[in-house]
Amino acid sequence: MNNVKAAITGVGGYVPDYILTNKELETMVETSDEWITSRTGIKERRILKGENQGVSVMGAAAVKDLLTKTKTDPKDIDLIIFATVTPDMPFPASANIVAAEVGATNAFSFDISAACSGFIYALTTGAKYIESGMYKKVIVIGGDKMSSIINYKDRTTCIIFGDGAGAVLLEPTTDQVGIIDSIHRSDGTGANYLNMKAGGSRIPASHESIDQHLHYVYQEGASVFKFAVTNMADISAKIMERNNLKGDDVSWLAPHQANKRIIDATADRMGITEDKVMMNIEKYGNTTAGTIPLLLWDYEKKLKKGDNIIIAAFGGGFTWGSVYVKWAYTAN
Ligand code: UT7
């Protein structure tokens, strides 16, 4: 049997400079730092400001960081997959724009749309191109410019989301490390609870769609919360069970950063103590497809070769899943 695995051999990231604090949100909607902190764990989030600044700006910056850190020639990249629900335009794919921007002239590239699970869907997809022997260098980006689809008059959504992007490089290994296992699911009946109704082919943009605020994120928060806790915990438990991992065997849980209470409940169900849970929600909020690569970016220096990492995500669709990664390197 082919024992080539796809190893993550580097991580890059980018967050915009502008910091939107809970204090500033207090001046925009009826909320408080105390409510936001206690209900979500978020203190601040980043916002990409300026004209004509799409998600590709952040994706390209994350990839440039990755290429520099891993000393990779962009011409050696075979494939770029960009997980995002806030592409620069409905088409072309933001991955195409990033590939051109970073000089990956020999790569083909495409976007994946799976909201907050986008990065792990893309990670598994990218890994299959490596495991099959088809390609040697695949870049997987996760990022969103959520500020472009958030109504800053809606206190139930504007406090949660932020902008940012991260990227990883996948390369083949036979060293018993890399992407070991993945489980993914989706359930389209979840579309009723979390969506952006207009701007697609069902309700194209019109004066009416704008007047009705249909180009913003719509979320039934409490319902999504319940689905998120149950599904993220169940699927993570399943991947641990089928790989014979107990809580003690897991070095790190890298959970989607939607709400600290969801993260705590998931870790609790998995028997994983707080010191092993990656968390940066307090400074970036929920960057949708960006949360997991930004976690890996922030925690890279703490990770050691051979660490067992369980990644778990849940989001719009509904989409959810879990990926078991054996970390491939110890950063200097
Ligand atoms: O990442 C993709 C998937 N998304 C998620 O996983 C998000 C899941 N949901 C959540 O994280 C939480 O449901 C929210 C953070 C969105 C909301 O927290 P909650 O504890 O579920 O609040 P709630 O919606 O049940 O609302 C409780 C109360 C309501 O007031 P009443 O009706 O009890 O008087 C809300 O109007 O809190 C009120 N409220 C707020 N108060 C102050 C809602 N948003 C705010 C706010 N500031 N920003």
What does this structure look like?
The protein contains eleven helices and 13 strands. With 332 residues, the protein is an alpha/beta fold. The chain has a five-stranded mixed sheet with strand order 1-7-6-4-5, sandwiched between helices. It has a four-stranded mixed sheet with strand order 8-13-12-11, sandwiched between helices. A two-stranded antiparallel ribbon has the order 2-3. The chain has helices at residues 22-26, 33-40, 55-70, 94-102, 118-131, 155-158, 207-211, 221-242, 260-270, 281-284, 291-299, and strands at residues 5-14, 18-21, 44-47, 79-83, 108-112, 138-145, 163-173, 178-186, 194-195, 218-219, 252-255, 308-315, 319-326. 32% of the residues lie in helices and 24% in strands. Bound molecules: oxa(dethia)-CoA. The site of oxa(dethia)-CoA has 20 residues, from helix 2, helix 6 and helix 8. Oxa(dethia)-CoA binds next to helix 2, helix 6 and helix 8.
